[in-house]
Amino acid sequence: METKACFLQGLKIFLIGLSLIYSFIAFAQTGDEAPQQIQETTSEDNLPFMKTGLICESVRNGHCERPTVVLSVERKQAFCYTLFENITAPRIIYHRWYHRGELTTQIRLRLQPPRWATYSSIQLREADKGPWQVEVVDETGRVYGVLRFSITE
Amino acid sequence: MKSLIPFLKTVRWQDVLDVLINSYILFRVYILFRHTNAFRVIIGIGILWVFQKIATSLGLVITSWILQAVIALAAIIIIVVFRNELRLALQVQNLRSFLWGGVSKQSYTPAQVITDTVMQMGKKRIGAIIVIPGREDISELVHGGIPWHGKVSQEMIISIFWPNNPVHDGAIIIDGDEIKEVAVLLPLSQRSDLPTFYGTRHRAALGLAERSDALVIVVSEERGRVSIAKNGSIGAVSDPEVLHKTIREHVNPIPEKRTKWWNRTNLQTAFAALASFVIISGAWFSFTRSKDVVMSVEVPIEFLNRPVNYEIIEVNPPKVTLNLAGSSALMKSIKPQQIEVRIDLRKASEGKNLIPITQENIFIPPGILINRVEPSFVEVILDTLTSKEVSIQVDWKGHLDDRLIITEVKVSPSKLIVVGGKSILSNLNTLYTAPVSLEDIRGSGSTSVPVIIMPPSIKLAPNYSDRVVVEYTVKDRRTMEIVSP
Q: What is the DSSP letter of B149?
């Protein structure tokens, strides 16, 4: 009985700690405005809007490194970085990666109020060369923006 | 018997008519030309043709080539040499006689007068030579004649051949009841086996009989004997009845009294009719039923009765491959425009229609069979036309210098309006430019590139150019800041 109470207490502490760490990361990921590659946002009062959307060569420590529109397949990885503002409640968004208009992958991401930056990435292969789009949508299908880039040799 | 019934079911009424018409044409050609030299030459050419085909199948190149040349030459020779015979055969009084009647002399030759005269001249030892032409033209064989144009009578003939008469040498030609020419010179026979008592008259009579179907009557001046030369042979006739019958059968002026229907002539005609039918049926069979050649043809699909509200947005595939079989003669003569695949869109609806391609959709010349159709279905997308604004994206190609990075691209105009089927456009959001090479990029700049309009069923709205300007910003990778939003 005592062991069980002890376990529940430990779990509670662990969850509180985890939420604190998560909040810290979210805070670290938000900051000054980055150069905008494409900015297609909604500005309705009660809805979040995408302030920044970038395709980057890498994301390190919550920072988009070398935003670009042309990525060599030699880079092995492509990142889609998005920054949202005006978030009133936790919300799910998706990064939908399209290669020549064909959906190849869809990555589910969580937004936390009031401002949140998040990213997704894909591994690059030889067959991935060509034009790409990343469509940023929420669960209702609302499109926040479309980022366009190319994978080249 | 079991295989005969399914075969008969495949025979169309057009096939039966086809065989009957051509059998009758062949039969009529035989009837019109049967007793002429031209007909014999035609038969000879036919035999040569058979030999030529055999030589070709055996791979005898030179023999086949020579025979082919001979056949071609012979065909020309027939027309030139036998032009008079051909004219005679085709010169008919009316359509009925052309289609049904036989070729016969229309004039009356007084056989009895000739018989009596000849017999009397024999008794009186008056030498004579009388030519009664058959169906063949002899004008090329004889020469030196003097036009006479006198009515045939005993007195007239005797007076012509009366000794010391200026025209008594040579032959007379009787055409109908008219003495057409006198003092005619005939070609002499070269035969060496003739009796010694045969003089020049007999040789001349035989010479013409060898070269034509004419009947030549000779009266010997020395012996008073009457001889008949016909079909390359000559012989004495002592009985006036026999002479009369021979002349009558030769000129055939009055229809013979009807004898039994199975007489020789009728049997010959019936056999010719049957042979014509068998030959044409055989030809039809080899042309239409033989499947010795197989051929694949690609045929574009035609669409009929498209509903007025819809446009054909896409056809997949636009062509079908037909695997056809038939005789080589038919397959060689086939033309692309004779093969059609037509699909009726009356019952088609909006969106994707999967339509089977059946025998009913395929139109090919008779006698050719369809082995296979690939594919057996065609996908037709019907849709209402609409327009949509789509984004333009640059399709970069090649490798950018590793020291550089393209940070921004602007496309002007960034969007274009396209027109196409509603369902196609619902899934279309982006059009791409033609590939733009990265190899030559050393710094920021711009370029003009065409936009690739895909799928082909869509098109740009009027007044829109298919070219866009691409402006790109290039930075040096080493001096580039890390973005920290």
A: E
Task: Classify residue A12: in a domain, yes or no.
Answer: no
Residues B143 and B169 in one domain: yes
Q: Where are the alpha helices (DSSP H) in B82-136?
A: 83-90, 95-99, 111-123
The residue to which tokens 């207490």 are assigned = A9
Residue A152 to chain B, least CA–CA distance (Å): 6
Instruction: Determine, yes or no, domain membership for A86.
Output: yes
The whole domain housing B214 covers: 110-238
Among B429, B438, B472, beta carbon nearest to A152: B438
pLDDT at position B482 is 56
B119 and B91 share one domain: no
Pairing of strands B146-151, A143-152: unpaired
Count of domains for chain A: 1
Could you say which residues from 449 to 478 on chain B have a Cβ atom under 8 Å away from some Cβ of chain A? 472, 477
Number of domains in chain B: 4
In three-state secondary structure terms, B170 is: coil
Does residue B168 sit within a domain?
A: yes
Average pLDDT, chain B: 85
> Is A145 part of a structural domain of the chain?
yes
Instruction: With CA atoms as reference, report the closest residue to A117 among A67, A80, A81, A83.
Output: A83
Instruction: Give B233-274 pLDDT, tens digit per residue.
Output: 898 888 888 888 888 888 764 554 555 666 777 788 888 889
CB contact under 8 A, B483 and A152: no
Residues B36 and B52 in one domain: yes
Q: Are B216 and B231 in contact (CB under 8 A)?
A: no
- Tens digit of each residue's pLDDT (9 = 90 or more) over B316-344: 898 999 998 887 777 887 888 889 999 99
At residue B2, the pLDDT reads 61
- The b/e string for B134-166 (b: 16+ C-beta within 10 A; e otherwise) is bbbbbeebbeebeebeeebeeebbbebbeeeee
For the segment B355-374, the average pLDDT, to the nearest whole number, is 87
Worst-scoring range by mean pLDDT, A51-65, A125-139, B184-198, B425-439? B184-198
Residue B184's domain is classified under what CATH number? 3.40.1700.10
Note whether B485 contacts A31, CB cutoff 8 Å. yes
Whether residues B141 and B230 fall in one domain? yes
Domain span including residue A39: 34-152
Looking up residue A42, the CATH number of its domain turns out to be 2.60.40.2550
Shortest Cα distance, chain A CAs vs residue B420, angstroms: 17
Residues of chain B neighbouring A72 (CB-CB closer than 8 A): 399-400, 402
> Given this model, what pLDDT does residue A143 score?
93
Same domain, yes or no, for B118 and B151? yes
* A2 has a pLDDT exceeding 60: no
Q: Residue A55's closest chain B neighbor by CA?
A: B407
Considering only CB atoms, B484 lies closest to which of A57, A63, A146, namely A63
ipTM above 0.85, yes or no: no
Task: Report CB contact under 8 Å: B399, A52.
Answer: no
Domain assignment present for B87: yes
- Cβ neighbours of residue B395 under 8 Å, at least 6 residues apart? A130, A131, A150, B432, B433, B434, B435, B436, B452
Say if CB B244 and CB B115 are below 8 A apart. yes
Residues B385-427: tens digit of each pLDDT: 889 999 999 999 999 999 999 999 999 999 999 998 888 888 8
